[in-house]
Design a protein that fits this description.
The complex is a heterodimer. By secondary structure, chain A is an alpha/beta fold. Chain A has one domain: Rossmann fold. Helices cover 36% and strands 14% of the residues of chain A. Chain A is built from 12 helices and 8 strands. The radius of gyration of chain A is 18 Å and the shape is globular. The two termini of chain A are 25 Å apart. In chain B, strands 3-2-4-5-7-6-15 form a 7-stranded mixed β-sheet, with helices on both faces. A 6-stranded mixed β-sheet of chain B has the order 12-14-13-16-17-18, with helices on both faces. A two-stranded antiparallel sheet of chain B has the order 1-8. In chain B, helix 1 packs parallel to helix 7, helix 7 packs across helix 9 and helix 10 packs across helix 13. The radius of gyration of chain B is 21 Å and the shape is globular. The chains are: A alpha/beta, B alpha/beta. Chains A and B meet through strand 1, strand 2, helix 3 and helix 5 of A and strand 3, helix 3, helix 5, strand 9 and strand 10 of B.
């Protein structure tokens, strides 16, 4: 049974008041995600907006134990926590690594790949706001083509984004899922499911960022939904190798997809896109959806 | 029980006897046989540790940092570029005050590639806030691993146990394996007051600010500068702990006793050769020969490089006529780092011995006993000239 707002646990694991920007997609997924993760969990967090959002010493926004680690080491650190818990017979306690897209797709991918290959027992959540937002909007491996960032100014990023869930799928993980900050209950159910599975689990969460993407904070949820409705970001699970679209993406068909311009027009980061680039992106999305 | 085994096996045996709970390592010459041995101990059930065969040295130390933060006794080992690759984590481990023990099987660093011994790898990590101990033979390797865990856990500062690649790591020497019950008596199991635990949530290594800051109860908490100052103070205080642990070890195992400087015929010596690692034992032959010629000479092996035992250096060397400092590392653009440290310690002494600095054995260049003898003689004959100069010996330019 899918969780609804009526049976979502009341227990809040994040203290009221934190350092997130107004309209931050991460603050939605962090609040709902921690409810799914539960209290008997140790978090591992590399430098990212989450580091700041969680609070500056000696004040912390999270009620879970959290190990802040270096940028490249997230998955290795999660491995170390798991190993220590095992060595001490504390295996009921779960481990969740929570990193941004730069920390995952770029600097952290070696450690993540190593941990996946070893099958380390933890959930890795990548919140993808599609650039290095904490350092001021620099391009990352998951920044989409054409997007303006402070290191892809004027003409936008020339390269396509890296498909991290597909890289994780190539490791043969038991569970891989995508989710969106605009569909927090779907996120909740997927985290719940992942927490009950053995081995390395990977979740990739699309996370709108008002200041980095250039939109009014009140539109965060709407813009996240548009990414799904245009077929740009798809919600799916790969469970024991089986791919299936989930939630709102499951209900979509190629003919029902909204034009990508509806999504692009909401954000200033896409303003450098030219007609032919948009046409090419739109064609790519149709091609992707024709193969689903 | 006495065995004849390699230095790497001596280290692995120490790690096993210490009942280490989490081991993570990545292969690099000449450290590899040490981690192979540990994986064998674990696979055969002779040791109950979690052995994590990580994909890089950076991850090796990351695993240890996280496992130590979760309250387990942890160990890793590396050499040369492996140590440099984990350097970010080396700083992190001491900043986070984690009692990790790491063997550094000393090897020269690239480029160009060399797999052979010198001390540039651990020397380059001198200022990371770790305790650095040097072992001179196989027995010392095993014993130092045990002492390192105890020191690390008493002061919450990680310890590097350094020993010479190949010369010690791959050579076979007799050594005694202590009884497990004696080791258990010496080294109690590890317990941490601030481990990651959902019952008592802590947010560890959060962002600090330049200034002190009140917590939610209004109590002032330290800023980055106070935290780093504490590390420096505790490192200085750890000199006493190193001595205490050495005495405790000697009380149980009847070995050791010189944690700072291991001296050979230094008492009445006028001239002393100073170095680190296995070279100090090679220099004993040189000293014996010079003694036969009627020279009053000795050799001092520096066992603890960080924190630097300044007072022990003053006690050992003030009143001597001359020091001849042999080093397998260099602070490029200046001089041998041990030379800098020793002359700095002796600056406040009124009757300073002369000090000459020789760089040798870089990248495994053979150190000939005759060369050591000639160099020592030359230094003695040069009188009290206290010029600052660094000479390389064994060079073939």
């Amino acid at each position: 049974m899918a969780t609804t707002i009526l049976n979502l646990p009341d227990d809040e694991l994040i203290h009221p008041g934190n350092r997130a920007c107004a309209g931050c997609g991460l603050s939605i997924i962090y609040r709902i995600g921690l409810k799914a993760i539960g209290r008997d969990t140790i978090l591992v967090v590399p430098p990212s907006c989450l580091t700041v959002m969680q609070g500056l010493y000696p004040i912390a926004a999270t009620q879970l134990p959290c190990l802040n680690v270096t940028f490249a080491s997230t998955a290795a650190a999660a491995t170390g926590v798991v190993a220590a818990l095992k060595a001490q017979g504390r295996e009921n306690t779960k481990v969740v690594a929570w990193a941004g897209d730069g920390g995952t797709s770029d600097i952290g991918i070696q450690a993540l790949s190593g941990a996946c290959e070893r099958g380390e027992d933890f959930l890795y959540i990548c919140y993808d706001n599609e650039a290095y937002m904490n350092t001021g909007v620099q391009r990352s491996g998951t920044t989409p083509q054409g997007v303006l960032t402070t290191t892809t100014p004027v003409i936008g990023k020339l390269q396509k984004s890296k498909n991290v869930p597909a890289i994780m799928a190539a490791h043969g993980l038991n569970y891989i899922a995508t989710a969106s900050a605009s569909y927090p209950l779907d996120l909740y159910d997927k985290i719940k499911k992942a927490m009950g599975m053995p081995g390395t689990k990977y979740m990739h969460v699309h996370t709108p960022c008002p200041s980095g993407w250039g939109f009014d904070p009140r539109y965060s949820v709407k813009i996240g939904k548009l990414a799904v409705e245009t077929g740009i970001f798809d919600l799916y699970e790969i469970e024991n190798g089986e791919f299936r679209l989930t939630g709102p993406s499951k209900k979509l068909t190629p003919s029902k997809l909204k034009p990508v311009t509806e999504y692009f027009d909401t954000q200033s980061r896409f303003r450098a896109l030219k007609e032919d680039q948009i046409a090419s992106i739109q064609a790519g999305i149709h091609e992707k959806w024709d193969n689903y | 029980m006495h065995v004849i085994e390699s230095g790497n096996v001596a280290a692995a045996t120490g790690v096993k006897l210490a009942r280490t709970q989490v081991i993570a390592a990545y292969p690099i010459t000449p450290q590899t046989p040490l981690t192979e041995k540990l994986s064998e101990f674990v696979s055969k059930g002779q040791m109950t540790a979690q052995y994590i065969p990580v994909e890089s040295e950076h991850s090796a130390l990351s695993v240890c940092i996280a496992a130590s933060s979760t309250g387990s006794r942890t160990f890793t080992a590396t050499s040369a570029n492996g140590l440099l690759y984990m350097s970010e984590q080396v700083h992190w481990a001491s900043g986070a005050r984690l009692p990790i023990v790491m063997c550094v099987v000393n090897r020269g660093v690239g480029a160009p590639w060399t797999v052979w011994n010198d001390h540039q790898d651990s020397i380059s990590q001198r200022d990371t806030g770790w305790i650095q101990m040097h072992a001179c033979d196989h027995q010392q390797i095993l014993d130092t691993v045990l002492k390192a865990f105890m020191v690390a856990e008493k002061v919450s500062i990680p310890v590097m146990v350094c020993y010479d690649g190949y010369l010690l790591s791959h050579s076979y020497m007799p050594f005694e394996i202590p009884k497990q019950e004696d080791v258990d008596r010496f080294l109690p199991s590890f317990s941490s007051d601030c481990k990651l635990d959902p019952e008592h949530p802590l947010n560890q290594n959060t962002v600090t600010l330049p200034d002190v800051r009140p917590d939610i109860h209004g109590n002032m908490s330290p800023g980055y500068m106070e935290i780093r100052h504490n590390l420096q103070q505790d490192l200085i205080c750890s000199l006493d702990v190193v001595k205490e642990v050495e005495d405790r070890f000697k009380g149980i195992f009847n070995r050791g006793g010189s944690p700072f400087i291991e001296s050979y015929l230094c008492e009445d010596a006028e001239y002393v050769a100073v170095c680190m690692g296995s070279l100090s034992y090679q220099l004993r032959d040189v000293v014996d020969q010079l003694r036969n010629d009627g020279q009053k000479v000795g050799v001092a092996g520096v066992r603890l490089y960080r924190p630097f035992p300044n007072q022990a250096v003053i006690d050992a060397f003030s009143g001597k006529k001359g020091l001849v400092i042999f080093e397998k590392g260099i602070s490029y653009g200046n001089q041998g780092p041990l030379f800098t440290d020793i002359t700095s310690a002796l600056y406040q002494v009124e009757e300073r011995p002369f000090a000459h600095n020789y760089i040798l054995g870089i990248g495994g260049r053979e150190i000939k006993t005759q060369d050591l003898l000639d160099t020592f003689r030359k230094s003695i004959q040069s009188g009290r000239k206290n010029e600052i100069k660094t000479e390389w010996i064994g060079l073939k330019l």
